[in-house]
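[job 4471] stage=fold_predict status=RUNNING
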Amino acid sequence: MASSAFDPGALLARTYPLPTGERVRLRLLRQSDVTAVRQLLVEAGGVSDELEVRRLPSFDPRHRVAIGAATLRPGGEALVGVGAIDLIAGADPDPIVVDPSCGDALEDLLGSALRARARRAAA
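[job 4471] inference complete, writing structure tokens
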């Protein structure tokens, strides 16, 4: 689904289909996402370390980026995936967390978007 030609500048320009039939929109995380990040970590079976939850959307965009995947669900927009990466050449993303119902495709999409963003920033 995600290719090495991923355009990190087009995050808000489109939605991406998942094999589940849902469509996700990738966007930068923001402070108002703290509650949704906490909930996603709990749903994904992770422990929500409060410091990490609050740190994730608090990044300096010159050195680091954190991206969320959002989809529309009956209750409104839901955050179904998050990931972050340092903006240096060859960087690998921090562990990516996705809603278990979205599967590996979303993890691959987020990983590709984060790596593309780091490559673009390092260039």
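[job 4471] summary: The longest strand covers residues 76-86.
[job 4471] exit 0
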